[in-house]
Each structure stands twice: as structure tokens, then as C-alpha cells.
Amino acid sequence: MAEVVILDDESAAAGLAANVILDLVRRKPATVLGLATGSTPLGIWLALADRGADLSDVRGFALDEYVGLPDGHPQSYRSVITREVVEPLGLDPNRVMVPGHLGPIETAGNDYERAIRAAGGVDLQVLGIGTDGHIGFNEPGSSFESLTRVKTLTRQTREDNARFFDSVDEVPVNCITQGLGTIRRAKHLVLLAFGEAKAKAIAAAVEGPVTASAPGSAIQLHPHVTVLVDGGAASELANVDYYRYAWANKPEWESL
Ligand code: PGA
After folding, report:
1. 191-250 confidence digits (pLDDT tens)
2. What's the angle, vertex CA 93, arms to CA 226 and CA 66, rounded to 5?
3. Which of 29, 40, 64, 110 has its CB 3.0 to 4.6 Å from that of 57, i.e. a possible disulfide?
4. Contact at 8 Å (CB) between 210 and 218?
5. From the CB of 136, is ligand 1 less than 6 Å away?
6. Is residue 255 a part of any domain in this protein?
7. Closest ligand 1 atom, CA of 157?
8. Domain that includes residue 100, residue range
9. Measuring CA to CA, which residue among 85, 84, 86, 112 is closest to residue 98?
10. Count: domains in the chain
């Protein structure tokens, strides 16, 4: 099962995730990181930038991207990843890929899968979760075997993301996203969620039935998952006492 860690606040969770990433990079400087955009992982990028570690050999693959925004649009995930991850962390921009930017959109999914495979696969994938349960932009109903492909965003996701645009109508309808099958191939999944708005999605992902209707529940099929949440996001979990107990009794030698 996923290891669920309930932390006091976002910055504690971000600090823990940053430590896990830095431990990995110490062991393997050319770590392949799966990068997520959105509000949730921001603290991780800030914590990593603060630590000032040398991440210049790290490779990165973003989870997803809007389809239909002009090149260089500030809300394209290419721009967001450059601004929030590549520049502050000192990553090599040539080693960081965002789906949909490798060639024609028709073949972009396969091209991205090939690039991930050529890099040796993702070592650690950072994930947020949508209020509708999506991971990446895999909306409810997405196949657990799906690979990178063009999809259509739900109205809920477009409304959730409207805060980054002038209005919901400006949020693109289409996206390209790593599939649940792509995500499941990453060696370690680190899923973060904060606030009560995410509580139902987290409960469904961690404890609900494994179903395509709750894309986050795909994590239950993965052997190495860490879920970092605050009290709000944990508030619908049934087994909170056990998660706290397990964390308090975690063997010292055991890493996350
Ligand atoms: P958020 O988005 O981090 O901005 O809440 C999460 C997601 O949609 O995956």
C-alpha cells in the first residue's frame, strides 16, 4: 500500500519531498525526475532551490501540457516548468522535456514515450491530484494502461485552472498527458495534496476501489508510492490513525 504521511503543513511536506529527491540525486546524479506543474509541488521546487544542490545532470519529464496555446504563452506548461523548475533549480533546459513540443502533435504521444524510455525511465515522479481525482491530466475514465496522448479536459479541471487565466473560456479544452500506464512505470511515485478540497480525491486514490473512475486509485497498483498530505487533505481518510502510527514507528534504516 501507499505510505501515507500526514504532515503539519505544506512546507513540511515539500521539505520531505525535497529530501527524498536530494537523496536520490546524491546516489544517482543523472536522476530522471517526473515533474508536475500546479500549485501543489511549488514548495518542493522552492525547497530544492534553497538547498542549492547541484542538479545539473538531472533529467526531467513533465507530466502534461495544454494543447492549443501559442508558443511561449506564460501558462503553457513549457513556460511554467522553465520559470518554476528549470531556472530556479539550475537544471539543464536541454535535459527537460514537456510533452507536445517534440514535433507534430499527432505523433507527440509516441515521441514522448520513446524519449522517456531512451532516458531509462522515470526514477521519481512528483504528482498532484485534481479535485476530480485526475493525476497528470488523466481524467476519470482514463485507462490504467494509457500512455502519453492527447485528451480533453473536464469542465471541472478547466474551472479549477481558470485562476491562472483571465477566464475559464481561455483555459484550453485539450491537453497532452502522460498516461496512467506511463506514470505507473515510474519507479517511485510521490503524490502530494493539501487542503480539504482534495480530501475526497485523496481518500478515493488511497482507500477507494481501484477504478478508472478515480484515476488516482491507479497508485494502489504501484509497489512504491509515498503520499504526503496535510490534515485537510487527510480529513476523509478512514485509516488516519494507522498512517500516523506507522510513520511514528517507521524503522530508522528505512527510507521513504
Ligand atoms: P494543483 O493541481 O496542484 O494546482 O491543485 C493539481 C492537479 O490538477 O493535478
Report:
1. 999 999 999 999 999 999 999 999 999 999 999 999 999 999 999 999 999 999 999 999
2. 70
3. 29
4. yes
5. no
6. no
7. 8
8. 3-248
9. 112
10. 1
